[in-house]
Design brief:
Blueprint (H helix, E strand, L loop, with lengths): L1 E4 L5 E8 L4 E8 L2 H8 L1
Antiparallel strand pairs: 1-2, 2-3
């Protein structure tokens, strides 16, 4: 799981799995207020 800014400047939480030759996104959503505060501090 990672949290970061998209190219459109939205803070996203992304859940993914890494394999030998690729990364598979399981879900991606906009961060909640509490997740945003954690990211900013």
């Amino acid at each position: 799981m990672d949290i970061g800014l998209s190219i459109s400047n939205r803070l996203l939480v992304v859940v993914y799995t890494e394999r030998t030759d690729h990364i598979r996104i399981i879900s991606a959503r906009q961060a909640t207020g509490s997740e945003r505060r954690l990211y900013e501090h």
